[in-house]
Amino acid sequence: MERLHGEMPEATIELDHTNPLELLVAVILSAQCTDRRVNMVTPALFKDFPDAQAYARATPEQLETYLKTLGLFRAKARNLSKLGAELVAKYGGEVPLARAELAELPGVGLKTAGVVSMHLGGERAFPVDTHVGRLARRMGLTRELAPDAVERDLRRLLPSESWMQGHQLLVWHGRRTCFARAPACERCVVADLCPKVGVAVVKRAPRTG
Questions:
Q1: Which of 10, 29, 145, 189 has the most CB atoms around it within 10 Å of its CB?
Q2: What distance in Å separates the CA atoms of residue 72 and residue 32, rounded to the nearest whole number?
């Protein structure tokens, strides 16, 4: 983690947001979708739906027009409508900070709840998305497959004050170097520490001429 931080000291969440509700919505929309794509649709969405009440009043069909370029956009539209209604009914339109409360909201799972809670200063967490899970297993930090089990192992390895940074570093490293299909081990700053679990050795053809 020290090496990764030295390589990527600017690592932070890449979803654009200016308040807790925008963060929550953006993380929900990022499921099976790139942050870049989410950031392309959220400016108009956030402008027209500035609070939980606006989402609660909207129909899924109205929200779909903003989300149609995203994967699973119909399900996400339904969840945002339900999310607004639940935030209004249970929390006065505010976003709760507790991870357990967040995880019970429509469209919010354990990973999303962890990301939102830790960034809002609610609870320390080490959320496990596809990048974190893949790198944790590849680096030999866990043998688990279930995200909650992977998170338990990662939390045992690092002090709690380093969990958020550790999460973000693994996400960035997974997006920039340690790719799923063909990791760029030749330019990885932790290559000599990594057991490369599950990484196939690629034999390159010798140059001729």
A1: 29
A2: 8
162-202 pLDDT per residue, tens: 999 999 999 999 999 999 999 999 999 999 999 999 887 55
Active site residue 129: yes
Known catalytic membership, residue 111: yes
Per the residue annotation, which of 16, 47, 51, 111 is the catalytic one?
111
Residues found in the chain: 209
- Closest Cα partner for 25 from 127, 116, 128? 116
Catalytic residue among 48, 129, 192, 203: 129
Q: How far is CA 149 from the centre of its chain?
A: 17
pLDDT band at 204 (very low <50, low <70, confident <90, very high): very low
Contact partners, residue 5, CB within 8 Å, separation at least 6: 11, 165, 169
Round to whole Å and give the CA distance between 113 and 102: 5
The radius of gyration of the chain from alpha carbons, rounded to an integer in Å, stands at: 19
The DSSP letter of residue 181 is: S
Domains recognised in the chain with CATH numbers? 20-119 (1.10.340.30), 126-187 (1.10.1670.10)
Specify the residue for token string 């690629």. Answer: 202
